[in-house]
Amino acid sequence: MTQEQLSFITHVAQGKPENIVHQNAACPFCDVAHLTNILDQEADRIWLVNKFRVLADTLQTIIIESSNHRGDWSNYDPQTAAAIMNFSLRKWSEMKQDPQYKSVIMYKNYGPRSGGSLAHPHMQIIGLDKVDGYAHVTPANLAGEPFLNLGDAELAVANEPLLGFLEFNVRIPGIKAAVDLAKAVRVLTHYILTDYFHGRCDSYNLFFYNVQGGAIICKVVPRFNASPLSVGYLVPQVFQEDRIAAIGQEVIAHAHTYLG
To answer: Any residues with CB less than 8 A from the CB of 97 and at least 6 apart, and which?
Structure first.
């Protein structure tokens, strides 16, 4: 299979704002009055075209999740999280209906090791004109032995992770279960940032996939510096089965405490 690739536009990237490392830098997402190319808005949730479109042959858009600069899935209240998830899944679904795109991907960066540049809570929806963003993702990458159900959200640890070590796969039957997906993401991100790896993980990614039957899977990935085996050989390292089982039990206990 030919490797799918996206062309990166260097001169556009040179002007991108950044406030994850330089935390005192201005935040463009807080300056709502000067936002442009807004596609839709519900309360303080805003869908807009990315001002710094660094990927050729794409339409890059952003979901500003909240007006709270310090907001995050690990600290959202249940109502806010459910509203953000529902809004984001609907906008992703809308964009996928446009036949000009070969594929449409949605993901989130959080923290200094996630690949993001802005701290303000947001997700990205990108329409890819010529690239299939799912070409190298197999059903096995999105599978795993379920260890917990939160309503219609089924939580599993990936047996065949894309990057390596720990990846959670959360499956819901469709957008109608957005509230349960939001609850699962709240639990997992809070676990990742507080309990996982003795509290030394400060970054994560969310990736979203549609699968057969209309189901949606959200992959929740704790982020550290990438393993050289993954970078140089595309060989992910995985936990042994007893550690995977232990992580499942840790998340169950964390969910009981976090959700009350």
So the answer is: none
